[in-house]
Amino acid sequence: MTEILWLRRDLRRADHPALAAAAAAGPVLPVFVVDPRLWRSVGPARRAWVTANLRSLDEAYDGGLCLRVGDPAEVLPRLARETGAERVHLTRETAPWGVRRDAAVAEALSAADVAGVPSGTPYAVDPGTVLTGSGTPYQVFSPWARAWQQHGWPAPVAVPTDLRLAEAPSDDEARRLLDEALAGDLPALAAAGEEAATERWRTFLDGALAADDEARNVPAVDGTSRMSPYLRLGVVHPRTLLADLAGHSGAAVQRYRLELGWREFYADVLHHHPHSAWADLKPALAALEYDEPGPELAAWCEGRTGFPIVDAGMRQMLAEGWMHNRVRMITASFLTKDLHVWWGHGARHFMLHLCDGDIASNNHGWQWVAGTGTDASPYFRVFNPVTQGLKFDPDGDYVRRWVPELADLPGKAAHEPWKHGGAPGYPDRIVDHAQERAEALRRYEAVRA
DNA sequence: TTTTGAGTTGTTCGA
DNA sequence: GTCGAACAACTCAAA
């Protein structure tokens, strides 16, 4: 009997509970359903990234990955009829849109006498599991992270050794959509697939992580793990990474464990507060005064604000489908505090372009910067784009790499072109930071009063 | 129920 | 240039 394995955010074979469950029951038919609703809502970099990882997974299955296009609630019951399958195995989705979709699919399958069999989630600890002593959800990260680590997580799941595959043809339309996604001028993406992810992870584990905890903050240096695009599609499971970390010690290792913890924490927050995807987690701050987005938003999106570190980050995102985390905070602070634009506009732009764009991490991260999220953060925390640039890109290498107009400004001068005769073709600053900082503080003060 | 310690990532000013 | 204090209280989670 064919066991359908419906893949979504779990494009891997290693440490895959749903694959293990399917393989234990019979021959496995791995299937990916291209949902046009989703496919159209993301940018070219994200479509290309998904496609490249699907291709890699297809190779791992010796060309046995079945691709279909359409609404999964129609495609999957049809595929079950076609193959005689009685079960559809899947990794449980935990974000609001996916939860709703999966409920609709479960209903459609049930009507066709097919069972949906969920195994695991994309997280080491399932969202909703970690609770306070009184059984309520945690609101702040640090106590949550203590409880999360105390709770612990299962060991990685072994790859099935006796895997038998079932076959079903792919749609021509699905093939066409994927071919299209890899055609034309594409951003410079990372190498796709499990092997590439593992290689990258090993390099990080033995290199940057072992060497220096501070390298992670320097955008000119390749000092971060760059696991986020792989984690986003489940090319690697965090449980695998946590198991590897257990073999290492030191401050940087614990720090990295907590970075994975943030990913899990934000998924947990979203599980308990699904509305916080696009609404302020702190209702009191919903009254904050914003400016209607205008030409300044476009300047920010395109990297033309006249602030080198902001523009470098925005251009890196367009070029690579990825932005260094330090720079994400700086650019987000600039949009919300200097331009006074609602964080949701920035979050949407990030989701469109970032290959690792995840609704929980992205949107809660934005709310953290905007001051409307989980952190009891001092509202006066406003990033100064020049100070941040000088501090974390002291030699100016990062801004010159992404903003070629600054090429002739040596060293740290690249962060303040206006002090060094300007840079040909580079725009003037679109706002006065000191003035807008004061304005941001005024608006927060008005909400508090 | 009350109390207590603590809270990712910043900036500016003045000594 | 370096360092500590001020920014200003508020909420959370556990004891």
TrEMBL record:
Domain Photolyase/cryptochrome alpha/beta: 1-125
Cofactor: FAD
Pfam families according to UniProt: DNA_photolyase (PF00875), FAD_binding_7 (PF03441)
Domain of life: Bacteria
Cofactor binding comment, as recorded: Binds 1 FAD per subunit.
Family listed: Belongs to the DNA photolyase family.
Molecular functions (GO terms): deoxyribodipyrimidine photo-lyase activity; DNA binding; FAD binding
The keyword Lyase is assigned to this record: yes
GO biological process, one term: nucleobase-containing compound metabolic process
Its EC number(s): 4.1.99.3
Protein name per its UniProtKB record: Deoxyribodipyrimidine photolyase
The protein's enzyme class: lyase
Binding site for FAD: 224-228, 256, 259-266, 356-358
Gene3D superfamilies registered for this protein in UniProt: 1.25.40.80, DNA Cyclobutane Dipyrimidine Photolyase, subunit A, domain 3 (1.10.579.10), HUPs (3.40.50.620)
InterPro entries for the chain: Crypto/Photolyase_FAD-like_sf, Crypto/Photolyase_N_sf, Cryptochr/Photolyase_FAD-bd, Cryptochrome/DNA_photolyase_1, DNA_photolyase_1_CS_C, DNA_photolyase_N, Rossmann-like_a/b/a_fold
